[in-house]
Fold:
Amino acid sequence: MSPTPDDPTQAQAWITGEAPDQTVDFYIPRGNTGPIGPRGPIGPSLAVGNVTTVVGPAAPGTVGPQGLTGPKGDPGGWTTGTELGNVNLNSIVTPGLYRAWTTTYSTVENNYPPTVGLSQGVLEVMSMAAPTDIIQRYTVMGGIAGNGKAMFIRRYFGGNWSTWTVFLGARIDQTAGRAIYTWDDVNRREQLTYGDTGLRDMTLSNSNPAFFDTNNASRKVFLRRYGSFVSVMGQLQVLAGATATNYSTFLNLPAGFRSAGGVGGVETTALQIRGGTALLRFLTSGNDLALQTLPNMGAGLGNMTAGDVINLQATWQTTDAWPTILPGTASAGIPNT
Structure:
């Protein structure tokens, strides 16, 4: 530690210790500061890089420009709809997905489609301008109306709901011919709207080969069902040596082709060709097609004789369900018109 001078304006020395180990301390006061000399030239600037100036908004609170849009996220999936419960569908105008889980409430009073009849389903509500322009779509998904076979649409516009419009499912079955069914929402069942087996060659299915020659290439019998109508057409020829009979069956009608009236359901005539022509009675006997002679038409007429050619043509209606197996063999294709 340096000693303190007695007079700060005067120089002073201090000698401490004994010879030869003595220490000398000096205090020399500073003189007054002289005048400032002339300023030298300014040196070159030191470059330190560029500095960007950011200008803030013109006024506090001003919203700046919107930034760039980020990448689109993954789409969300459909979820289970909101349970409707005991509510009137007229009040459901918020776009979204709803479900009628409790069938007790899917009633006409709650403005469900009139033929739904206590069926579970999903309600979709779509909007052009909610809540004044609404589309409701109801898809049946359970109950006696059949899953997914009926969809109903109505619109709310101008303060009024339209009536429900139904869109029905169709089913095409080509197991036996071609059959098209439409769902009958009123009666809760399918309705056959088109069916065609095409011509079926029944020659080899003849049920009385001992009497009629249907294996002759020029003598064929065809059977066809179109919708609920059945037609038979073709020719038979009486075999040589066949015994004349009053009543002879020639074809057994398979399931799907039988007459709605049973015995006597088909009642018409067949043309018998010999030297001249005559008529035979053509009818059903149970599930068989049969020919019956008409001896009262005159000598030699109306009786079947060896070599006679008999032309057949008849149509009848059936209430049989559509066949699952087709008889005989196909003759040409099924028309698509």
Notes: The chain has no helices and 21 strands.
